[in-house]
Amino acid sequence: MADSQNVKEEMTNIVLPASIVESSDDAIEGLSFDGNVLFWNKGSEELYGYNSAEMINKSVLTVYPKNRSEELAKIITTIKAGGHAKPFVTQRIDKKGSVIDVAISASPIKDSAGKLIGLSVISRPFAGQERVEKYAKQVEEKSALLAAIVQSSADAILSLTLDGNISSWNTGAEKMFGYAPAEAISKKISIIYPVESSEEFAEIASKIKKGEQIEHFETQRKTKDGAIIDASERISPIKDEKGTIIGISKIIRDITGQKRAAQYARSLIEASLDPLVTISPEGKITDVNEATVGVTGVPRKELIGSDFSNYFTEPEKAREGYQLVFSKEKVTDYPLTIRHSEGKTIDVLYNASVYKDDKGNVLGVFAAARDVTTQKQASQYARSLIEASLDPLVTISPEGKITDVNEATIQITGVPRQQLIGSDFSNYFTDPEEARQGYQQVFKEGAVRDYPLAIRHSNGTITDVLYNATVYKDASSNVQGVFAAARDITERKKVEEQAHLTSAYARSLIEASLDPLVTISPDGKITDVNHATEVITGVSREWLIGTDFSNYFTEPRKARDGYRKVFKEGSVRDYPLAIHNASGKVIDVLYNASVYKDAAGQVRGIFAAARDVTTTKKASQYARSLIEASLDPLVTISPEGKVTDVNEATVKVTGVSRDKLIGTDFSNYFTAPDKAREGYEKVFKQGFVTDYPLTIRSAAGKLTDVLYNASVYKDDKGNVLGVFAGARDYTRVKQTTEEVESSNKELEAFSYSVSHDLRAPLRAIDGFAKVLSNEYANKLDDEGRRVIGIIQTNALQMGKLIDDLLSFSRLGRNEIKKEYVNMGAMVKEIFGLQRSALPDRKIEFTVQDIPEARADADMMRVVWTNLISNAIKFTRVKDKAVIEVGSKAAANVITYFIKDNGAGFDMQYRDKLFGVFQRLHSVDEFEGTGVGLANVKRVISRHNGEVWAEGKVGEGATFYFALPKII
Amino acid sequence: MQNYNEFEVLLVEDNPNDAELIMRALKTNNFANKIYWVKDGEEALEFIFCTGRYVSRNIQIPPKVILLDLKLPKIDGLEVLARVKADERTKSTPVVVVTSSQENSDLEESYRLGVNSYIVKPVDFDKFVKALSSVGLYWLAVNKPPIK
Q1: Homologous superfamily, domain A814-964
Q2: Predicted ipTM > 0.90
């Protein structure tokens, strides 16, 4: 099949020679190398008298005289050797048998591939020597033409009689249609028509006969094996010397490939995603593909004929572009921006070249655009990514030069970009050779991973990095260079070192552990132990490792069950075992163990830590015995309110056996089960309760009032396991309290009635005694008036007694309201008040700087009032009273005192000082009710303080009271 | 029929001895004729609110002061105090508690209810006279009641 290039050439070369051959006066024959005639023109027919049908495929020796037959072999040898046979004069014999003088020349016939397939011979009647040279020259020219004709033999060249019979059939025809000349000659031309029809030929023949020109046309023809081929045909008349048309010549060209190629090319063009366009020398668009329509948003019809430059953001640049193509024939990657009709712009790169006609005339520009918008964005994006990368990135040429770097590379090397680019990659490493080997390995293997290098910064800092690098290629897969990304592993290295240290640390921790630690393989063998394990087993490490874990326990089966449980459940806690020491000693331990896994999550074994609980066990036994020994009923309660444990006291108070108590509802054993429930629920909620009152009902119906103190108890992890509740039998306390409360109430009622009812008659006695002495004084003698006076004095004394008694009672009952009391100021105020009633007394009163007290102010007033009035009262026997108030501070208490130089007292009676109604003096000596110091003692006692006194008869007394600093 | 509107002092006191001593104490200041004495809480309320035995009294002309013992038959003194102070018509009438009780609870409750004064009866007659005559002087002569 001819390619389009050859077709073009042949098209231009064939038409004219064909007619030359036919119209030539010279005899022109084509021969195969075995001397058979391939074609035989009119000239030959005229010269030799044989028509073409007589000669085709016959040996040309027919026209050779017998003695000149070797000439043919000579000519063929010359042609085969690649030369031309120079014209020479010889003789031939025509059909009539006459010898004719002819001048002969010969030229080779080559097929389109240039292969020699035969020769053409031109014979001319020889008419004198003078014409030889001229003739020879002409022959030579024509031979050249014939050679060209022969070259076209890929085309089928055949001749037909006017009634459509094939009269000649060349090798091209043979090749094209598959019929050998013998098969084709004398057959109707319709054998190569796809449809059996003589109409086409009849039409052509009639036109030819009328002398009409027939343009070459495209049609379809059929081969011997039925295949349809696209064909281009040229038809010419064959005329005799008188100009009479005697036949028709046909040159048929197979254009199937060409047609397909053209269709293929078009579909390729249309299918191209790149906008393609052809531009005329005037800059007009002459053709476009669908992609151009898409990218411009302009229909094909409008595009064609319009200015190419119209469709760009920079028309002038577009114009310059195609002009550049016309002047340079070609441009590549010419950047333009297409503006879509809707305003969108698309960055493109144009590759364009001129296209020419057969003669080399430039017809226009063929331009292909490539949309680089996304590519541009992508590359900008990629660049920004590269720059943003914290990892130093670099590209390296095959020569090992840096071709590009990112910011991180600049940072890590301390070298500016311009200086980096073009320099040796290996320059920047502590080991340049290693670096070189690195990139060479990449070029060789395509990639490396985690290639360790150390970058040296210009300031000397060294950064350990791991390089990942790959080659990068251009579109044609040619390796352009290496792209290398480094990762700073300084930190990672540190971490690794740290990890190493940590593991060493962990090991030392393990060894330092006082608890025996052991690792166990899935088959129960000890794989590692610490020193504590050696100690507790009495067996050396070397011996322990590799032996059965269970060997070292009093109950090997239980030990086995233990580690199997760990493998099954992942962990155990507080698994009790007893280690059998080599010395025979048994040590109770609790094991906590869990599986350990490798990085892939595969269980590799068990890590087990034991704790010696021998002492713990003792302690717990001790605790148990304490619990049992407790007289208070103790009980543990589950979150569901079930009794989980009790002591003997609980058994006693409930009258229910331990076995029957455990597992039953706690609330069952109380007169108010709901209140019992609320109680333990409160404990679970708040963590504890104190003095929660309940009444236990025993099996026999006996009731016991108890106060519960209870709190939750937790496991190691802080999970609440239950409530521990301790009851205290307060049946008696309760009774006593009730009694006290009722007697208090009685006392209150008594006090109240005393204050009202007892004083009213006294008032009446005093009041009416007064009325008597005022209004009836003249009717009484002195004795009468003295008696009335005694009545009044006693009434007043009794009133005072009642008042003091009431105040004593009140001081015992009233609630203490603590505040900060300025004792110094209070003392001075009280003294001032009392002093003012005794203007005649000489009193030297000093108050030190005494600290304030945290106490009930009203009660402190009672204390100081009594102590000061006592001091004043008992010093009246002295000419000059000396009273001093002061304090002594100790760690936890403040002791206040008041010292006088008064009557004093005998220390043997000091215990009586603070009793109610206790007096050391008669009323005649010193008036008083004997309640004052009792009140002082009561107040101080209620403040958790102490009161005491020192004294000496006739010399004075000192009263002390001490108050806690923080109450 | 007696004109109860003329009394300036209402004395509520169940103990006749105390009542006599109080009246004697006030007599020294010439207030004696203006004192009306009732012996229990019930009668006191009838007098104050012009009901029952005292329906003829005009509530618009209240006593200048009510001297009130706390421990009373039938209705006790705190109740009487509460009723007087809770009623718009009588709440502006001064009430002076005169009692033997020094109990804090009584004091606090009295003041809470709006008592105007609280006097503890002393056993000493001289002090008693002094206390009451100063009360009488103050409420009857010094104090200005609102004009009705």
Answers
A1: Histidine kinase-like ATPase, C-terminal domain (3.30.565.10)
A2: no
